Amino acid sequence: VQLQASGGGLVQAGDSLRLSCAASERSASVEVMGWFRQAPGKEREFVAARTWSDGWIFVADFVRGRFTISRDNAKNIVFLHMNSLSPEDTAVYYCAGRPVGPDSTSVATYKTWGRGTLVTVSS
What we know:
Elements: E1 3-6, E2 9-12, E3 17-23, E4 32-38, E5 45-51, E6 57-59, E7 67-72, E8 77-82, E9 91-98, E10 112-113, E11 117-122
Parallel strand pairs: 2-11
Antiparallel strand pairs: 1-3, 3-8, 4-5, 4-9, 5-6, 7-8, 9-10, 9-11
């Protein structure tokens, strides 16, 4: 399975942006799809994840209420909708996939990764 993230760019504080992650196929190996981000000089951190089915969605506390995750099963795309962006959201955003299982917010449990897409939020 290959993942391709897109949709990043330069925006101003308060703006919204939608990131997309297209999967070459859906399989059990990527039933859970996650978004992570890595700011300069910082570790990669979990942002949000969901299953392709309606069974499970989880959003990190620090973005809850601003970011949501959705999917288009017909097109094999998972979206990250980001609202009220601030300069602190500046980072490279990655999508990743893994099988269903515990610790789905842990970077280490995701084995399939796409290339990141850069989001820059100016003040």
